[in-house]
């Protein structure tokens, strides 16, 4: 991707879960690197990770990408950051007992959870 500018650290802290097929990883890593997105390969024989990722992508499409139009990459980047914040702090996830992801993350990273 010669001659393409990197969009800086606009997506710092964002990881892209993907399968580990070599042909896809090379192409994907070039694109995600430009946006500052970290690669997170899926585990072999762990299809539930794929289902979770696909469900999240569908949620993102239905609640942001299909309902708004973005004139610039910067507008898209800002909307994605805002969506991430809203999703992590207010979205109630059934598999988490109808709690937001930020609550689960805080619980898993708490000192008591780490000591157990």
Q: What would you say this structure looks like, in words?
A:
The protein has 116 residues and is mostly helical. It has a domain of 35 residues. The chain is built from five helices and two strands. Strands 1-2 form a two-stranded parallel ribbon. The radius of gyration is 16 Å and the shape is globular.
- What best-fitting shape do the alpha-carbon axes yield? globular
Number of strands: 2
Give the proportion of residues in helices: 55-70%
Number of helices: 5
Q: What are the low-pLDDT stretches, counting only 5+ consecutive residues below 50?
A: 1-9
Rounded to an integer in angstroms, the radius of gyration calculated over CA atoms is 16 Å
Would you tell me the overall average pLDDT? 75
Strand order of the largest sheet: 1-2
> Could you give the order of the helices and strands?
EHEHHHH
- Our estimate of the beta-strand percent is 5-15%
């Amino acid at each position: 991707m010669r001659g393409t500018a990197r969009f800086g650290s606009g997506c710092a802290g964002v990881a892209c879960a993907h399968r580990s097929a070599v042909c896809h990883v090379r192409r994907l890593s070039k694109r995600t690197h430009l946006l500052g997105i970290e690669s997170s390969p899926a585990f072999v024989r762990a299809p539930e990770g794929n289902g979770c990722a696909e469900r999240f992508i569908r949620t993102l499409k239905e609640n942001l990408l299909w309902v708004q139009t973005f004139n610039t990459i910067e507008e898209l980047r800002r909307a994605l950051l805002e969506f991430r914040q809203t999703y992590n702090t207010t979205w109630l996830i059934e598999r988490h007992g109808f709690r937001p992801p930020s609550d689960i993350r805080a619980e898993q990273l708490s000192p008591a959870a780490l000591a157990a």
